[in-house]
Amino acid sequence: MDNRGRIVIPQSVRKCVGISENQQLMVIADSDTKEIKITPVGIKGETLMFRIKMTDHVGSLAKIATVFGKNNVNLVYGESVIIEKDKTAIWTVIGARPKHIELEELVAILKKEGDALEVFVEVLEK
Fold first, then answer.
1. What is the mean pLDDT of the chain?
2. Scanning 55, 80, 87, 96, which has the fewest C-beta atoms within 10 Å of its C-beta?
3. For residue 40, which of 59, 22, 55, 58 has the smallest C-alpha distance?
4. Are 82 and 58 in contact (CB under 8 A)?
5. What is the pLDDT of residue 125?
6. Rounded Cα distance, 116 and 19, in Å
7. Would you kindly state where each structural domain of the chain is located, as residue ranges?
8. Fold assignment, 47-125
9. What is the DSSP letter of 12?
10. Residue 123 in contact with residue 46, Cβ under 8 Å?
11. Strand locations in 7-59, DSSP E?
12. What is the pTM of this model?
């Protein structure tokens, strides 16, 4: 690592795991285990982060995941956190901008069919 925090991945390692120049990588840091995971990401086009507030009940996350699946939204990362036990949780997912449905329509379906309480969408990269 250099003095600016950049990490150099040796060519032999890049070849071994199939990382090519200008490829998007996902960096996940785990503060508990003090580990960093670097994973190649195959997202083409715009990368979005969805932050979805839902009820903390059995099956809530599955309902929302089903909406993403039915609408062909490719998700590459997800993390759920309970905000208040048996009341609310937040699921943060990263994926590609859907091609066959407008974001506003997807958000409406997540609320109606997925029972999402709130949905925030942020563009991470174009």
1. 87
2. 87
3. 22
4. no
5. 66
6. 36
7. 11-40, 47-125
8. Alpha-Beta Plaits (3.30.70)
9. H
10. yes
11. 25-30, 35-40, 47-55
12. 0.70
